[in-house]
From TrEMBL:
One Gene Ontology molecular-function label: lyase activity
Gene (UniProt): nspC
The protein's enzyme class: lyase
This protein's record includes keyword Repressor: no
Record protein name field: Carboxynorspermidine decarboxylase
Enzyme Commission code: 4.1.1.96
The keyword tRNA processing is assigned to this record: no
UniProt superkingdom: Bacteria
InterPro entries: Ala_racemase/Decarboxylase_C, De-COase2_C, Nsp_de-COase, PLP-binding_barrel
A Pfam family of this chain: Orn_DAP_Arg_deC
Cofactor(s) demanded: pyridoxal 5'-phosphate
Domain Orn/DAP/Arg decarboxylase 2 C-terminal, residue spans: 139-330
Keywords: Decarboxylase, Lyase, Pyridoxal phosphate, Spermidine biosynthesis
C-alpha cells in the first residue's frame, strides 16, 4: 500500500465496503427486513451517498448523530438515548423518525410529544439474557445494567403509546447468540408484540463475517415477521465496514528495554482506544504473533501514557525509522472515538475508490485541537 499522504491516516476502501453492502442488501431482500447504519460505529458521512443505496437509513445515539443522519444519509432516521435532554428534544423531533425510549418514565415523559409529531415510538427492553464472553463492558444484560426495561419494570398501561420494541444485546456475535436472545425476548415480551408495528433487533450482528450464519439470521427474521406480523429492523455498525478500513502509520524510533520497542506516530489511546478498552489486538499486515517471526517488537504510541501500547508483533526483518505499518479493520469504532490527548494530531481520512485511486478526504491540524478547548 504505497502513498505519499503523511501518516497517520485512516483509509477506507470502496471495493471492500461495497462487498459488505452487497451482503447486507441480499440479507435484507431475502429476509424481508430493514437494515440501518449504526452511526456510533462509523460516521464517515462523505460516503453516506454510497451507503444509502444499500441501507434503509441510520441510527443515532443523540442529537448530533440524528442531525448528521437526517442531513447526509436520508431514509429513516432512528434515535435511542438512555435519557433525553428536555432542551434538545424539540430539535430532535425535526430530525428523527423513530424514537426509542429506555424506560417507562422516559416513554411517559416524551412519548406523547413524539406521537403528536407523527413519529414512531418504541421502548428498549432488556431480555436479561447475556450471551457475551469476555466483553462485560459491552453487555447490556449484565446485572445492574442501565440499558433497557426489564420485564419487572415493564408498564403495560403505556402500551397504547408504543409502535414497537427494541433490544440490543450483542457485540461482534453470530446468529446463534441472536437466536438464544430472541427466545428469551419472546418468553418475556412476545405477548406485547401482537398489535405493534415493528421490532428492532439492535446491533452487534457480525453479518458480513465469513463464518456468520446468515441463513439462521434470515430464519429468525422470518419467524418474527410471520408470528407477530411486524416489520423487523437490524442496526449493525461493524458489519457495514468490517475489514474495509486501515490505519497507516510510520515508525518514529526503535529502542530496547528488555525487548525491542518501536514508537509509532499513531496512538492506541488517541486513535484506536478500543485496543485499551476492549481490549483487543488489531491485525497488522505482514506481521505475526510475538515470537512467531524473527524479530518481535512492542508497538507503542508517542503519548506520555505508559500504557499507550498497541501490542507485541513479530516481523521478518528489523523495523527501521520511517517504515510504514498498516493496521487492518480500522474503520469501525476508530474515527468516531479519536481524541487529542497530549495534543496528538488526529489522523487524516483517506478514501480509496474502486479504481485504486486514493483521495484525501479530510486533514486535521492545530485548529481542530484548539477548538475543542477554551
Amino acid at each position: 500500500m504505497k502513498s505519499t499522504i503523511s501518516t497517520p491516516y485512516f483509509l477506507v476502501d470502496e471495493t471492500r465496503l461495497v462487498q459488505n453492502l452487497e451482503i447486507l442488501r441480499q440479507v435484507a431482500d431475502q429476509a424481508g427486513c430493514k437494515i440501518l447504519l449504526a452511526q456510533k460505529a462509523f460516521s464517515m458521512f462523505s460516503c453516506y451517498p454510497l451507503l444509502r443505496r444499500y441501507l434503509a437509513g441510520s441510527t443515532a445515539s443523540g442529537l448530533y448523530e440524528a442531525r448528521l443522519g437526517k442531513e447526509y444519509f436520508g431514509g429513516e432516521t432512528h434515535v435511542f438515548s438512555p435519557a433525553y435532554k428536555p432542551e434538545e428534544f424539540e430539535e430532535l423531533l425535526t430530525y428523527a423518525d423513530h424514537f426509542v425510549f429506555n424506560s417507562p418514565r422516559q416513554l411517559q415523559k416524551f412519548g406523547p410529544k413524539a406521537k403528536a409529531a407523527g413519529k414512531a415510538v418504541g421502548l428498549r427492553v432488556n431480555p436479561e439474557c447475556s450471551t457475551q464472553e469476555g466483553h462485560a463492558i459491552y453487555d447490556p444484560c449484565a446485572p445492574g445494567s442501565r440499558l433497557g426495561t426489564t420485564l419487572a419494570n415493564f408498564d403495560e398501561s403505556l402500551l397504547p403509546l408504543l409502535d414497537g420494541l427494541h433490544f440490543h444485546t450483542l457485540c461482534e456475535q453470530n446468529s446463534d447468540d441472536l437466536e438464544t436472545t430472541v427466545a428469551a425476548f419472546e418468553e418475556k415480551f412476545g405477548k406485547y408484540l401482537h398489535g405493534l408495528k415493528w421490532i428492532n433487533l439492535g446491533g452487534g450482528h457480525h453479518i458480513t463475517r465469513k463464518d456468520y450464519d446468515r441463513e439462521r439470521l434470515m430464519r429468525i427474521v422470518k419467524h418474527l415477521k410471520d408470528t407477530y406480523q411486524v416489520e423487523v429492523y437490524l442496526e449493525p455498525g461493524e458489519a457495514v465496514v468490517l475489514n474495509a478500513g486501515f490505519l497507516v502509520t510510520s515508525v518514529l524510533e526503535t529502542l530496547h528495554n528488555g525487548m525491542d520497542i518501536a514508537i509509532l506516530d499513531t496512538s492506541a489511546a488517541c486513535h484506536m482506544p478500543d485496543v485499551l478498552e476492549m481490549p483487543y489486538r488489531p491485525p497488522l499486515q505482514n506481521s505475526g504473533e510475538s515470537g512467531e517471526k524473527a524479530y518481535t517488537y512492542r508497538l507503542g504510541g508517542p503519548t506520555c501514557l505508559a500504557g499507550d501500547v498497541i501490542g507485541d508483533y513479530s516481523f521478518d526483518a528489523p523495523l527501521n525509522e520511517g517504515d510504514r505499518l498498516v493496521f487492518e479493520d480500522m474503520a469501525l469504532y476508530t474515527m468516531v472515538k479519536t481524541n487529542t490527548f497530549n495534543g496528538m494530531p488526529l489522523p487524516a481520512i483517506v478514501w480509496r475508490d474502486a479504481n485504486g485511486q486514493e483521495k484525501l478526504v479530510k486533514a486535521f491540524g492545530y485548529e481542530d485541537f484548539k477548538n475543542r478547548l477554551s
